[in-house]
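Forwarding these from the shared drive since the link keeps breaking.
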Amino acid sequence: MNTEKLGRLYLPLAVTLAVLGFAPVIHADSIITSANVVGSSSGFGLITYTPGDNVSEFMLYGRTSGSADYIRSAGGNHISLGVSGNGSSGDGNLYNATRYSYSGGTPTASGTWNIESAQWLSSYTWASISFTSPASAYTADFFVHNYYAQSDLLVYRNSNLIGTYTDVMSSSSLPGGGEARDTDYFYHFGLNNLTAGDVMTFKLTNLQNLGSGWANVGFLSSSLNYVVPNAISDDYTFLTPGGVVAAVPEPSSLALLFLGLTGFGGYAAVQRFKRS
């Protein structure tokens, strides 16, 4: 084959496609540059969101009622309101294992928050949240409470599936053995090669009830460009596309105690909320 002629043929074709608006194919692994999870059966304690300091934007999904406003960062419009799904939610649940302190918010400028809205597995088989990309590169994070549930995770860019993660959340077991049916999870995704305005959707799917009439998942919060405390990031488990997360490590209790006392997030004296 005459590679010189091939090159002369390909270059005009590439230029023509670019002019016509056909972008080069960007593989999923160049978009999702990192994917991590941490699970804790004792929650993450107090999580602090301060826009302009440790986060760009945040959203708290817990509401006192279905008609109440969501608490979110003021001026932020890159995190979609609420949780999408195919079931009915239960609002107004007091939950202290992972709770929040925030400033720069709306409709209330600052305060603390320990309200959860649950997505009941009696009706939900999937639930999702979305981000409108503010730039070509950023991080997207979210906390989820799990009660007697198991789930896979799908990641979409503009409705196109780019990531599949199997068994990313299960309250059926703990590292080292034993069972914990009440578990909180933190997910951290590094994203790149996007166009501002691209919609990134994170969908919990194949939700399965592990044996309770109260089984549910509850998106607690999400954020953009959150500065993750070391007590959480030091215990990351890497999510492998298509792979199974065999064990989700528990964060260091001493490190979380320190963070809880200083108000950056972590384990403090926890009041557990059980639905059994």
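-- next protein --
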Amino acid sequence: MPDDAELELALDFIDAGNLDEGIAMLRDVVAASPDDVRALFALGAALGHAGARAEAVDLYARVCAIIPDAPEALDAWAAALGEVGRRDDALAVCDRIADLPGFEGAAALRRARVELAAGRLPAALAAFEEAYRREPGRPRRRTISFEHGRALLRAGRPADALALFDRAVGDTSEPEDDEQAEEMARLRGECADQLARS
């Protein structure tokens, strides 16, 4: 039986910025309860944050073996696979997410992120468009527009990027993220500068 108090304490340490101690505690919880999906997932997230992405991949794989249809775990696994350069494996996990009813948009968004990280800009842009189409009236539309706009700016298409940033600003499907809003303001300025020079 997992020790919920120890797991919560480990998460409190991590939340307080004490990552090493939190990871050590999570390792103890996982050693005592190797099938505790909450501890496995939390340890994977903490290790990924600490830069131990290959170990995070293995932990997320264990979670998905225990709970094969958990969208959050599948998304984290796909992200970690993409971060360690295992694009094809990450895309296969994205396909598993897409098979879950109601998660087609989330799968396309993760696919776009994986393709972008792999430097496959045309595939990423197509996946961003699919993600937006699959998310009508649902959360994540602002994030999709923002990330799609950022990719278009990177592709040298400032007018298209600016249009997407404007769409993101007007989208109220999810709460506004201050950090994202600051970056979007900076990128909108960058778009305007590029357009003025052209």
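The mean pLDDT is 91. The CA atoms of residues 34 and 136 lie 39 Å apart.

- D.
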